Amino acid sequence: MVRQLSAIFGAPQPFDPNHRYTTSWILPPIVLAVIRLIISIYAFTSTFFILGWNGTHGRQELNRRYFSFFTYLTFWGIAFYFLFSSLHTFRYALTGASWLQKWPAMLQIAHAVFYTTIVMFPILVTAVYWVILYSGDWFPDDFTAWTNTSQHALNAVFAAFEIFLTRTAPPPPAHLPILVLILALYLSLAYISHATQGFYSYSFLDPSKGSGRLAGYILGILAAACVIFGVVWVIIWIRRWLIEGKLGMHGKFARSRNNEDEEMSEIERVNKK
User: Fold this and answer.
1) How far, in Å, CA of 188 to CA of 35, rounded?
2) How far apart (Å, rounded) are the C-alpha atoms in residues 36 and 90?
3) DSSP one-letter code for 24
4) What is the Cα 178 distance to its own chain's centre?
5) CA-based Rg of the chain, rounded to a whole angstrom?
6) Which of 74, 85, 138, 238 is deepest in the core (most CB within 10 A)?
7) Residues contacting 35, CB < 8 A, separation 6+
8) Distance (Å, whole) CA 167 – CA 252
9) Which helix (H) or strand (E) covers residue 14, if one does?
């Protein structure tokens, strides 16, 4: 049963035998690990700096509401994903095997789902912000401009890095219901925040502006999430087809005898397609 669930949710056993989560088609593993670590450090540093700035510049109310916003929760996800993925990649670069391959199946599934959220949710956040929430006027000060650029633009760049420069496979369709469930849980959190703190994290969630309008926004964002999932799936599929199948760039691997054998096996498998 566990093996069947693992396969359905993107973690077939043995897990990641060709090191797709820890390699790039163009970057050596150690460089990939360093870039992932830098992204994680940037995400953590900017997050704590924003909280500190708010706390020392009369914006404590923003900190109290901080975890009610999907944008900030997604940015925390970016920070932790790139931290863990960098550690796995460092381990692979130095030893030829990542901790991921030895983890219990449920944690492997969790990592696969985590990856899918990172290549999908930041793009959704960016789209919703610039299409729905952005007023059209540039930000009043450098701090506000930097925070919004980091969390509503760079976040999508970080997602694109994982989409275009790694060797990951397209996310399995079974991940889509999980993503929808996460969005539904966030919607619940948003209304809990209103019930407990008296504010809506996003103005379009206010039902007093019209239930039809509210339903339209919710269904529109749900549809956008499904479309983004499909587009990301297709882009990753094309990347593998073009880079590996047509150009023969099968990846940069850690050098060991076992990995050389795995690399040749992967090349032969791709060439048969």
Assistant:
1) 35
2) 10
3) B
4) 14
5) 20
6) 85
7) 27, 161
8) 10
9) none
Q: What was the pLDDT predicted at 201?
A: 95
The C-alpha atoms of residue 88 and residue 95 are separated, in whole angstroms, by 11
Phi and psi at residue 262, in whole multiples of 5°? -65, -40
Structure tokens at 67: 């975890």
The DSSP annotation for 89-158 comes to HHHHHHHS--GGGGS-HHHHHHHHHHHHHHHHHHHHHHHHIIIII--SSPPSSHHHHHHHHIIIIIHHHH
Residue closest to 254 by CA, chosen among 130, 93, 109: 93
So what's the pLDDT on residue 138? 85
CA distance 90 to 87: 5
8-state DSSP, 272? T
Place of tokens 């690990």: 33
pLDDT by 10s per residue, the chain, length 273: 678 888 999 999 999 999 999 999 999 999 999 999 999 999 999 999 999 999 999 999 999 999 999 999 999 999 999 999 999 999 999 999 999 999 999 999 999 999 999 999 999 999 999 999 998 888 888 999 999 999 999 999 999 999 999 999 999 999 999 999 999 999 999 999 999 999 999 999 999 999 999 999 999 999 999 999 999 999 999 999 999 999 999 999 987 645 544 554 554 454 444
Q: Are the beta carbons of 265 and 258 closer than 8 angstroms?
A: no
User: What's the CA gap between 70 and 98, in Å, rounded?
Assistant: 31
Compute the distance between CA of residue 121 and CA of residue 106 in angstroms, rounded to an integer: 22
